[in-house]
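Hi everyone, sorry if this is the wrong subforum. Our group has a chain we'd like a structural model of before ordering constructs, and none of us has done structure prediction before. Sequence below.
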Amino acid sequence: MTIGDATKSRAGREDSYDIETTVMNPLTRSIVMRCRHLALAWVVGIVAGAALAQSPPTRQLAAPYVATPESVLHQMLMLAQVGPGDFVVDLGSGDGRLVISAVAQYHARGGIGVEIDPALVKLANENARRAGVADRVRFDEKDLFTADVREASVVTVYLLPSAMERLERKLAAELQPGTRVVVEDYPFPTWRPEKTLDVETIDKLKISGQTLTQLFLYRVPARE
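Answer:
Right subforum, don't worry. Here is the predicted structure as tokens:
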């Protein structure tokens, strides 16, 4: 795969959050968003069910493979304000594009992608070598729920709603308080996002049938 250039320069990233969204009554907008997400979850759930039926019984898919468009992944990295001090962990890393971009274009010091599909793990590691970041990036064939995420300063997630409660518990137990977590489309059930960003892009049409992506930025809360 080809790692695309960032759509905006690093110096202009702060301005990227001023994305104009459709103006409507807040309650109406919330209902519309819920309906859209429920419909998408139903469709993606069918795909996931088919994938599960063909998977070994000892492994559980938290989501089918759906590549995040380049335009969206750059917004995720900018929302998290990824920079030279960060170590990025992508849970469900697919072809590796997000972690590779984090290191190659946003200068993160390193990163790991966790992916259950061995073919995608092989592809992602090849992509990292082609991008010249294999010394700082690696992709592991693992169940994301058993992966060690403790080194992360930034975690990125694009999973089905059914996986989010369990993942929230895992991250709360393993990550340091204040660690940034960026979630695409399906929020955690109890954590409150620090920031929400609506991204309109035609790149999402072939994935979800709509142009809207919602991104949620969280910081891991202090342990009680």
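For your construct planning: Residues 38 and 161 are 9 Å apart (CA to CA). Confidence is low (pLDDT under 50) at residues 1-35, 37-59.
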